[in-house]
């Protein structure tokens, strides 16, 4: 949101990590030109300006970090079986996924600055506050990587915030603009944020309307990669496998052919949004490109798709969305709560066909459940993020009074060996000379578990005491923070336990007299003296938010941020 104001006033804008712009358009393409002097490929244009560029220079991805792992499968699914799978374009340009994201963000930043300069909103005269949202499926490491990529671009010179996940931003918009009669106290509302890449579901119980609306989260936010992009891929498969003559299948693998394919996909996307499975429209037609295209269902320059075939193209996205929706509805019903409204937001959320299917499903539910598409539903995430940020600036109460932790977080530890709990076949043992105890390695102490309730605040705060012993001088100690998405996390390190970050506590600069001094019970040496050792006790406070984890170290009851370093990245347990 931008308006003219006095110099040095803070202005807020918002983008999201699925490459959506605050104007609501999809910006997902980069094109590159070759810098002959430095012998590298440099970004040249993005978004719609890049859509019709030659494919050999254009990189496309929808949900970075979520989209890339399945790239080979997706590319294989839209080419003839006789064709080899093409390498991603960014690899042929000698770039990584991170490089492409960074280049895209930098082009987006330049576009933003030029747009604001045209409006007289120069960064020299005011502070930019840029908000980013991330998909529900992003784990902490992916959020941190995205945040680091943002900071490495021109955005890093301004105040940036990556503090909301898309479903929560959407529900905040819905609470601000929804009709109160559709959100009665004591009943549930379910929000379905169906976009291009993922479909995210969130469910809440309404607890109050006066003086302000308050809700409590009922179920963990869930998401699946079943957005409308799958409909587009299904269309390409249909085109290749059932419509095109053999000569055209090969042609569409060429640079010119891929440009024509892009035009047809754009035409299909426009018709897809209007499809409602109405019996009055037994077929939809799409102008083909090039006009001479031939094959089954193609006549006089138009491709005809039957109503039944359109339903099959929607099948994967619709079925995935309905399965996610059913999970949340079932949880509400198990808790004895009735569901008053289901809100559909996002690009796919505005689909008439999806709306029809959800309404049909609601007929089987007890009571009367309304299916609502809020006004400007496709902008719900963007506007919800901005409005939420504005309210926080003015000190308004958080409308979500109870949240549910989406994942378990803990620390890798060694603990005293327990023959009942530990198994010699899978647990490593070692002898601790100070404690005179056998210890089990690679165990996990869970600090907060998936499903735990976070009451009355945006973050969960956990304080944990750390005790480290040393002989002569304090050391540098490292601890692994781990995470797990299972409903019941394991007690030891396993394939289900992932590294989150590495905490490095550096106590080397602290005088020795600041630590507790002890003597070992057993006497050692010729003179039978008891060996001296020191104990270092400190607290680490872990603050778990919607999109990040923050750590603070307290020594002698004082905050000592300079003693703690947090390292994110691909760690090995």
Characterization of this structure:
The structure is a single chain. This protein is α+β, with helices and mostly antiparallel strands and 573 residues long. The protein has four domains: 10-164, no CATH class; 167-223 and 321-403, 2-Layer Sandwich (Nucleotidyltransferase, domain 5), CATH 3.30.420.40; 229-314; 405-568, no CATH class. The protein is 26% helix and 32% strand. The strands form six sheets. Strands 7, 8, 9, 10, 14, 15, 16 and 20 form an eight-stranded mixed β-sheet that branches. Helix 6 (229-243) packs antiparallel against helix 9 (307-334). Residues 1-16, 18-27 and 67-85 have low confidence and may be disordered. This is Actin-like ATPase domain-containing protein. InterPro entries: ATPase_NBD.
């Amino acid at each position: 949101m931008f308006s003219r104001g006095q110099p040095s006033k803070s202005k807020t804008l918002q983008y999201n990590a699925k490459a959506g712009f605050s104007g609501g358009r999809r910006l997902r393409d980069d094109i590159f030109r070759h810098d002959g002097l430095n012998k590298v490929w440099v970004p040249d244009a993005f978004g719609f300006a890049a859509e019709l560029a030659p494919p050999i220079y254009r990189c496309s991805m929808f949900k970075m970090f979520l989209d890339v792992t399945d790239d080979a499968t997706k590319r294989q699914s839209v080419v003839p079986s006789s064709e080899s799978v093409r390498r991603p374009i960014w690899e042929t340009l000698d770039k990584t996924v991170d490089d492409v994201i960074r280049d895209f963000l930098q082009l987006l930043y330049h576009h933003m600055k030029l747009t604001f300069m045209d409006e007289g909103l120069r960064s020299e005269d005011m502070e930019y506050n840029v908000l980013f949202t991330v998909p529900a499926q992003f784990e902490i490491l992916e959020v941190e990587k995205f945040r680091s990529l943002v900071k490495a671009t021109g955005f890093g010179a301004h105040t940036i915030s990556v503090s909301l996940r898309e479903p929560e931003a959407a529900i905040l918009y819905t609470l601000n603009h929804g009709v109160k009669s559709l959100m009665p106290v004591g009943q549930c509302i379910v929000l379905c944020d169906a976009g291009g890449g993922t479909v995210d579901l969130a469910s809440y119980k309404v607890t109050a309307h006066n003086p302000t609306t308050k809700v409590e989260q009922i179920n963990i936010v869930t998401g699946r990669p079943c957005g409308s992009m799958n409909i587009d891929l299904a269309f390409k498969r249909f085109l290749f496998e059932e419509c095109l003559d053999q000569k055209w299948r090969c042609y569409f693998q060429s640079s010119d052919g891929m440009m024509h394919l892009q035009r047809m996909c754009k035409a299909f996307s426009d018709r897809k949004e209007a499809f409602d499975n109405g019996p009055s429209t037994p077929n939809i037609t799409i102008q083909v490109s090039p006009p001479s295209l031939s094959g089954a269902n193609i006549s006089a320059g138009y491709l005809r798709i039957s109503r039944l075939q359109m339903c099959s193209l929607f099948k994967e996205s619709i079925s995935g969305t309905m399965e996610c929706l059913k999970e949340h509805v079932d949880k509400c019903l198990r808790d004895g709560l009735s569901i008053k409204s289901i809100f559909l937001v996002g690009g796919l959320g505005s689909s008439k066909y999806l709306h029809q299917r959800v309404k049909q499903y609601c007929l089987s539910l007890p009571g009367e459940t309304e299916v609502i598409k809020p006004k400007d539903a496709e902008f719900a995430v963007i506007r919800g993020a901005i409005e939420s940020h504005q309210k926080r600036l003015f000190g308004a109460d958080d409308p979500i009074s109870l949240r549910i932790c989406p994942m378990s977080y803990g620390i890798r530890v060694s603990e005293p060996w327990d023959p009942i709990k530990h198994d010699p076949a899978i647990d490593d043992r070692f002898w601790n000379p100070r404690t005179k105890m056998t210890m089990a390695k690679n165990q996990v102490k869970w600090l907060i578990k998936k499903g735990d309730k976070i009451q009355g605040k945006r973050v969960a705060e956990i304080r944990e005491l750390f005790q480290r012993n040393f002989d002569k001088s304090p050391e540098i100690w490292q601890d692994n923070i781990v995470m797990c998405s299972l409903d019941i996390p394991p007690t030891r390190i396993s394939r289900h336990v992932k590294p989150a970050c590495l905490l490095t506590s550096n106590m080397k600069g602290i005088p020795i007299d600041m630590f507790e001094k002890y003597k070992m019970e057993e006497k050692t040496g010729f003179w039978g003296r008891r060996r001296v050792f020191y104990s270092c006790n400190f607290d680490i406070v872990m603050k778990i938010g919607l999109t990040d984890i923050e750590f603070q170290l307290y020594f002698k009851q004082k905050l000592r941020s300079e003693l703690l370093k947090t390292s994110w990245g691909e760690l090995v347990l």
